[in-house]
Structures are given as structure tokens and as C-alpha cells.
Amino acid sequence: MIAILDYGSGNLRSAERAFATASDNVFLTSDFNKAIEANGLVVPGVGAFSACMKGLNAIDGAHIIRKRKELERPTLGICIGMQILFSKGLEHSDGGAHDGVGIWEGEISRLNATILPHMGWNTVETKPNSTLFAGVEGESFYFVHSYAAKKEVGELTTWSTHNEKFVSAVEDGYVSATQFHPEKSGRAGLALIKNWVNSL
After folding, report:
1. Among residues 98, 145, 162, 181, which one is catalytic?
2. Which of 27, 38, 64, 162 is the most exposed place for a label (fewest CB within 10 A)?
3. Does 79 qualify as catalytic in the annotation?
4. Which candidate in 16, 52, 79, 118 is catalytic?
5. What single-letter DSSP state applies at residue 19?
6. Domains, in order of start, for the chain
7. Alpha helices in 75-162 (DSSP H)
8. Can 181 be counted among the known catalytic residues?
9. 70 included as an active-site residue
10. Do residues 131 and 195 touch, judged by C-beta distance below 8 A?
11. Under a CB-based contact definition with an 8 Å cutoff, are residues 158 and 133 in contact?
């Protein structure tokens, strides 16, 4: 069972269709218990960090994610769904910072780039021991974002560059995440999704 967490953010149907290519049991839910009990939980996200956290907190989503980590049940964050796994987000913060879920310590800050958002296809610096990128080394993935993590976290950090280096994926035990949209990344994205599903 793959649950797509519905907290009012993200292209849920697109994510549902993409993950259905790797599993015959994919469903959308905002139910606490169903999200906890699923074999895998996908946390999508589109928009601003603070708005996504507001929607997530409305369904006790931060608790869901932390509880799944405690229970050793896999979770995958996508785009802003990755960013909110960090402790702080600076988007629309007026000098302060918005609290994230806090799975990883670190800030999500604006990319130091002349053209934003960073939108389109970009490569990633994969590592040979990656589960997510097995078989898609050297491929490009689809990004849409202006903010990113810039600090190495977890067991394995994957990097990309848009004027400066930023974190494009993290693999950390039972919690993984991608800054790019695998569901919009064609064959390589579907292969990455299959890799994650097969690891559950």
C-alpha cells in the first residue's frame, strides 16, 4: 500500500498515476491512521514552505511523518514535500524562519541564482551506493523551485547545481526525499519511483 498524503498541496493525481506504475495499491489520504499504516507514504508539495506547513499541520501531518520514522516505515518527500522535512524555511519569512517537520536539521534558503525559479531539466551527482538512483545514473530530472537545502544531511546526499550547489535528494534510512519531481521526470523519474517502491 502506497499512501499519497493529501494535505491540500501538490499535484496529487499526477503523483498517484506515477506511483501506480510501480504498485497496484496506491491511494490518496488525509487520514492519520491510514497514513501511518501504509507500507510507504509519499509527501508531495507545491507552493511556499509556510503554506505547505500550514496544510500539513491541519491534518497532523508532521506527527504522521515523525511517527512513521519512529516506527521505521518509509516516507518519501517530493519538492516542497522534501523542504518541509527540514527544521526551518526562509521563504516569505521577513527575516525570521518558519518551522518545518524537523527530520533533518537545516534551513531551506533562496538559491543564489540570476534566474529563478530554477525550472526545467537538470542533472544530479549520483553516488554508487544510492538506492533511488540505481540504473538512472547520469539522467536528468525535472525541477521547479527557488529555494533549497544547501547542507549535507542524512546517510546519503545527492547534489545538483543551479549557479550554486544545492541538495537534490536525500536518502536517510526510512526517510528519503527529492527536490525534483520524479512524477514529471519521464522514464528516469518512473524508474526512481520503482526503485523506492521496490525498497519497501
Report:
1. 181
2. 27
3. yes
4. 79
5. H
6. 2-198 (3.40.50.880)
7. 80-83
8. yes
9. no
10. yes
11. yes
